[in-house]
Amino acid sequence: MQAPKVIADPIYGIIDVRPVLPMIETREFQALGDKRQLGMSHLVYPSATHTRKAHSLGAYHATRELARRWIERRMIGRRESDALAGYALYHDIGHPPFSHVTELFCPMPPGIRGMSANSAISLAIIRRRRKEIEASGIDFKLLERMASHRDPLHLAVSDKNLGMEKLDYLERDGLFTILSRPTGVDYLREHIYFIDGHLAIDEKAIDNAVEAQNYYLKIYKNVYLRKTSAIAQRMVQKIVHHLIAAGELVPDELVGLTDSELTGLMRVSREPIVVALYENLRDRRLFREAVVIRTAGFDRSGALTGKRIVVRGESDRVIDRLAQNPALDETNQTGLETAEQDIATIAGVPATAVLVVPISSTERFEAQDILIYEGPSGPRGRRSRFASLRARYPAHFKNIAEVGRSYLAFRVCATEPHRRRLSEPRIAKKIIERVLAA
């Protein structure tokens, strides 16, 4: 008799990990236990210290349960079920320290194209861990096809709306930050189907799917795009940029580091700018907003909060241009530092007193459609009929896009002694002109 191996989880209760112990006991998976799920959000929400390991175990359990229901409904077989659960366990195994915060510095593995850095690195690790995957009784080639997104079954884990890992982090992140969970997720999971290579929901779960999409917006507003988190994230990225430039960190080794190990490199760095930024992060002395550019109609004055902040409203076209400007993209750390130096010159303050925080990608607010299963069609019911949630509720998708845009902001921040200088009307006007002319 195999001894029980169970894990207590705040979302699902008890998770049985006996089937995948060889995969869990690998170095890469154990490292996820020291990689925060939400990057720098713990600076806003002290309880947001849950890890990629906890999330991966949750995604594994939710996928295992979904696959069990699909077997009962004869949508998949046991072989597909085991591979799906294994893919869910390893879907995030390629995350670097502080999750998406440092992902932009990770080189893409050779021979892998058309995937995000995290997905590509995860795939490369999966290919190295074939022995452990097969020791867990999983068809390696099938799992590898899911991880490379060549098998449509991967949607059971990674679909933007209905994937088990998506629904897991939605619940998990909400619980540890704003102390809430989306309603009806358990019901929604019960009514997700895999038919003819498509992921679809039952008619009766439409309201729950809409609620889940609305909850995504709520989490983005209050957690993922939170001002303090965005500023802290940019500070970490600037630190990593200078660690690499100084030769104190090799990009190829970044993925293998945990949060603690990367923090240790910051602590012992000899680079003055790294030392200063790290000390400010450690003591939570973050840069503060001075000038903000955002979508017109949402450019509320900083005076409403009693703070000296100049907020400029611009058209959607201008905001899109800012978001897509390669000179002001988070992947171009050198370009951002050039902008910081120019702004510092305009304001007559030290360059180290200015921090530019670019606009996050607008793609995250482009809600994907959800298929609704309507039953068999055609001669003898050999084909399946699907409807579009977007076609049925176009106003819902339009609202997601409009509300999402209200969160987008380009921030010019400063250390507290220099913040007032940057927000002087004459100086702020010149700063905005510099940014828009980039």
Low-pLDDT sequence parts: none
What's the count of strands? 10
| Largest sheet geometry | 4 strands, mixed
Shape: globular
Distance between the termini: 67 Å
CATH class of the largest domain: Mainly Alpha
Radius of gyration: 23 Å
Percentage of helical residues? 40-55%
Q: What is the name of the CATH topology of the largest domain? A: Hypothetical protein af1432
Structure, described:
The chain is α+β, with helices and mostly antiparallel strands. The chain is built from 21 helices and ten strands. It has a four-stranded mixed beta sheet with strand order 3-4-8-9. The protein has a four-stranded mixed beta sheet with strand order 6-5-10-7, sandwiched between helices. Helix 9 crosses helix 11 (206-224) and helix 12 packs antiparallel against helix 15. The longest helix has 21 residues, at 52-72. The protein is globular.
Keywords:
438 residues, Hypothetical protein af1432, Growth Hormone, Chain: A, 2 domains, four-stranded mixed beta sheet, 21 helices, 10 strands, globular
Please describe the topology of this protein.
Elements: E1 6-9, E2 13-16, H1 21-24, H2 27-31, H3 52-72, H4 78-90, H5 117-128, H6 130-135, H7 140-147, H8 155-158, H9 164-176, H10 185-190, E3 192-195, E4 198-202, H11 206-224, H12 227-245, H13 251-254, H14 259-268, H15 272-282, E5 288-295, E6 310-314, H16 316-324, H17 333-347, E7 354-357, E8 371-377, E9 383-388, H18 389-392, H19 394-405, E10 409-414, H20 416-422, H21 425-437
Parallel strand pairs: 4-8, 5-6
Antiparallel strand pairs: 1-2, 3-4, 5-10, 7-10, 8-9
Helix pairs in contact: 3-4, 3-9, 4-7, 9-11, 11-19, 12-15, 14-15, 17-21
